[in-house]
Amino acid sequence: EFVAAMKGIAEQGAQAAAYVDLVRLRKALQARSAPPAGAKPKPGSSLPERLKAVGLDRATALAGGASIVDRCIHQKIRLYTPAAHGGVLTALGGQALAPTALASVPADADLVLAVRQDPRKTFKDLPAVLAALDPQTHARFNTALKWAREKLGLDIPRDLLAQLGDEWMVISAPSLGGVGTGTVLSVSVRDEGKLS
Asked: Three-class SS string for 78-139?
């Protein structure tokens, strides 16, 4: 598995390489983190629950390599995990960025983060992730959703997220005002009429 995982990651010219067998690591960590005999663990406190919440319960390997290419450090990292992704990894299961996705980025950009992810799908999985990681945060999340529905008449999944597209970008550039005031979040919109 090591050879297959490293193929195309750390081959000729690599100056650093890393590999982690996540199946073996999970087994070792679970053996060390088991609660004492007779102790009842709190919900969301076990390693398997937390790994499932973030979507790493079925990941098999992590492989990476680095080299210097044209005065820059070139890194490749792969997380091997079978589809369908769950937990936090759901957000990373979108389509590839469009060829024109970065066309609007100013030449003086300090920070660019572009991703394609469906907010409806991510939001749908969020309650289970929160419940598994921290039941108190999950309860506060549900309270906030209820408050928005009752006090503002806003059903966040239906009224907001269903209208948002899957293209998200954060840009910060001096030409936009610099760090902080020049940081812009843009999101594609499915239906402007319903959103306004």
From this structure: EEECCCCCCHHHHHHCCCCCCCCCCCCCCCCCCEEEEEECCHHHHHHHHHHHHHHHCHHHHH
